[in-house]
Amino acid sequence: MQRRRFLTLAALMPALPLVARAATDLAHIDHASMGHGPAAGPHAGIDHSTMGQAAPAVALPEGAPLPALVPLANRSREAGRFSGELVAAPVHKGLAEHGKPTEVWAYNGSLPGPLIEAYEGDTVEIAFTNRLPQPTTVHWHGLPVPADQDGNPAYPVLPGETRHYRFSLPSGSAGSYWYHPHPHGHTAEQVFRGLAGVFVVKSRRDPLAHLRDIPLVLSDLRLDADAAIPANTKADWMDGREGDYVLVNGALKPVLALGENERVRLRVYNATSARVLRLALPGFEVWRVGSDGGLIEAPRREAEVLLSPGERAELVITGAAKAGRLIALPYQRGKMMSAEVGETLVLATVAPGPRVASVPLPKRLRRIAALPAPKVKRRVVLEENMADPKAMFTINGKTFDMNRADFVGRVGEVEEWEVINRADMDHPFHLHGTQFQVAARHDGRGWKTEPYRAWRDVVSLPAGQAVKLRFRQDQPGMRMFHCHILEHEDQGMMGQIDVRA
Fold first, then answer.
1. H or E segment and range at residue 490
2. Mean pLDDT of all residues in 445-465
3. Burial class (CB in 10 A: 0-12, 13-18, 19+), 146
4. pLDDT surpassing 60 at residue 383
5. Residue 377: its H or E element
6. Contact criterion met (CB below 8 Å) for 469 and 417
7. Which among 39, 169, 281, 442 could bridge 466 via Cys, Cβ 3.0 to 4.6 Å?
8. How does the entry describe its membrane topology (predicted)?
9. CB-based contacts of 222: which residues, under 8 Å, 6+ apart?
């Protein structure tokens, strides 16, 4: 064990009773106000007898065909307009092989939530109703929407209320986005109970439109002996929650039928709270063709694809004559209180089908212009202080305050942020309102130029590493940036930039 890790844990032990006491005090806060600072959510459900996660308590059925996502119906008959309805509510699902139904929180009763598909240039209107026992919001993760439509916790949807979200999808925004709750203090719980859905923006000039397009939503699930979803443990609030099962489109180890020589486009979403997924498909031809914000410039042959929480990748795979497996290889992300994943996880099986003809991949997918030299440079430091239960996870030494702007920016100005992880564990960094380009990475030995250009809204930062990213905000308003380990976000590892016209 590293000396720093040992000293951190030693400092943490006396503080744990303080965390529990703080939870008791916070339990009386009026959460409907959604004020600044951490709500009771991160601590009120702690199981004080558990330092880590237990082995799976119940069995789930496995090996069914890969479920297709339920599309959200477009109620508009006008061209260029998408109008739909979303309802977040508790529902009961028969997840366990034998046992009681599980109460989950779902959009429109679906796990994952309904698939929203729209085109560049469309105007999107979503009537969202909250039937949860907590305030919530809908964050359109990665989409360039107006600040007051982005699901910021400053705009809560209280239990029983309906909120109408409205935004337009600009040219060049085609990509693999998703939606999930973003109420401060309650985000982690609402996501691990099931609230997440896919939002695909399409281009009418898509060079891969001829391929079968398959979303794969990877999520964590934990069930207790009664097939109920338990609250977070102390270890979860420290390390970020990992479940007992990694589901694909809500199913355990489903089967994807793929004809020999058939090429398909996989949109892969890491919708877990904290798990870093080191994905591989041994024996298959795998090409990376897209990132969070859509297609990259040219296909890249990949043996492995690393996805941190919130991150997406578009892959093109080619069917083989034999069966295969989509796997998650072991990855150590620096957890403090629970064991690292030391084994390879089988996520899905690929079943061979009849041979089909396929079209070669284009050599070029699109052009991504490099952002120009920045007008503003900033440093953003991610840190951990386990001796302070009120500020264990910070950005630039501070925890989130909804009434504070950490930076002030200008619409249209290119900024370069040097984001530094001075903590002991991985922290994926997410910026709202725009997509950024990673210019360079520092692995502890020196800066290295990013090998290819891509639009992203999440970047993985292992302990002791740093990135330089460039972006431009094209709409005014308050925009959040934070760690996308949801438990860390809920505890205040988040800041805001006030973008002014």
1. helix 486-490
2. 96
3. middle
4. yes
5. strand 376-384
6. yes
7. 442
8. Lipid-anchor
9. 53, 192, 229, 230, 241, 243, 244, 245
For 83-108, b/e burial (b = at least 16 CB within 10 A) is bbebbbeebebebbeebeebebbbbb
- pLDDT, tens digit (0-9, with 9 covering 90-100), for 24-41: 333 333 333 333 333 333
How many Å apart are CA 99 and CA 32, to the nearest integer? 35
The length of the chain in residues reads: 501
The reply to whether the predicted model has a pTM over 0.85 is yes
The DSSP H or E segment spanning 353 is: strand 345-353
Q: How far apart are CA 8 and CA 16, in angstroms?
A: 13
CA–CA gap between residue 316 and residue 429 (Å, rounded): 26
Average of pLDDT values for 386-390?
Answer: 87
Which helix (H) or strand (E) segment is 25 a member of?
A: helix 3-26
At CA 396, angle to CA 390 and CA 397, rounded to 5? 30
Rounded to whole angstroms, the Cα distance separating 192 from 229 reads 8
The tokens of 254 are what? Answer: 């489903």
**Is the Cβ–Cβ distance between 245 and 53 less than 8 Å?**
no
